[in-house]
Amino acid sequence: MKVVAIDFETANETRSSPCSIGLAWIEDGAVARVDHHYIRPWDMRFAPFNIAFHGIGPRHVQDADEFPAVLDRLRADLDGALVLAHNAAFDISVIRRTCEHYGITPPAFDYMCTVQVARSVWPSLPSHKLNVVGRHLGISFKHHDAAGDAYACGQVALAAAGQAGAVGVHDLPSRIGLTLGRLSHGTYAPSQSRYLPKKAPPPPRPILPPGAERRLAGRTVVFTGQLDTMSRPDAQDLAAAMGARVVLSVTKAVDLVVAGPGAGAKLRTARERGLQVMDEDAWLALVG
After folding, report:
1. Distance of CA 21 to CAs 42, 64, 167, 201, 223, Å?
2. Nearest to 38 by CA among 55, 54, 22
3. HSE toward the beta carbon, residue 106, CA cutoff 13 A
4. Three-class secondary structure of residue 222 per DSSP
5. Phi, psi of 84 (to 5 degrees)
6. Residue 192, strand partner residues
7. Domains of the chain as residue ranges with CATH
8. Residue 110 phi/psi, 5° resolution?
9. pLDDT digits (tens, 9 = 90+) for 129-176
10. pLDDT in tens, 60-105
11. How far apart, in whole angstroms, are the C-alpha atoms of residue 110 and residue 94?
């Protein structure tokens, strides 16, 4: 069975705006090769937040093919493969939404989410984001680079297979109680975990330096998208410990939105209302 790990970067908040894809092929128990393609988004709309996140802008893709041509080159590798992705819901939705936009048939394959794999195999990690799992396993890669992330995703799957005593990556789902997802023309089924070990106990409340408990007093904060250095609940707890009111939607009371990769409607609403929006680096600088 063909096994290939993939990772997309998008030009803006819409899932139909891929600007980069990385792929890593697994053969004989190792990552055998890695490939990367720039993709020219159909409307060439790059959001500043996305550019700051992955470093890709219009100049990188101006001579690149649009998605249908890139998919044509990769379809033989993807059709019938076992596809791996870290947070597969995002990457598979990029394929689905972009194929819908262009009116083309998606490739047909089963897929496995390595976030779900990592949660099953290493339940005590503080987070199961790719950089955290990669650091735990000693994987050297460039995060938020599509080729680097695809390589790391493949290495995570291989390490998990070894840890779980699986014959190979294809044997991993049966070892950890994972149901593969499926994408094909007219068919979509998510990857699902049938069971997961109990989560590690939550960390203690954050210990703050003197005076920090009022640093965000009077602020109403929303978190959206993913964070790399901490989970969203941990970030919410930290904001609350510093005096902020943390809410789940962008209401009229909100005056600060912290946005990570995958931020969608909340980020759009915040921008439309002219609210302060910051990325994870700015958030970490704020909370010190």
Report:
1. 15, 12, 28, 36, 27
2. 22
3. 22
4. strand
5. -110, 140
6. 179
7. 3-193 (3.30.420.10), 212-287 (3.40.50.10190)
8. -90, 150
9. 999 999 999 999 999 999 999 999 999 999 999 999 999 999 999 999
10. 999 999 999 999 999 999 999 999 999 999 999 999 999 999 999 9
11. 16
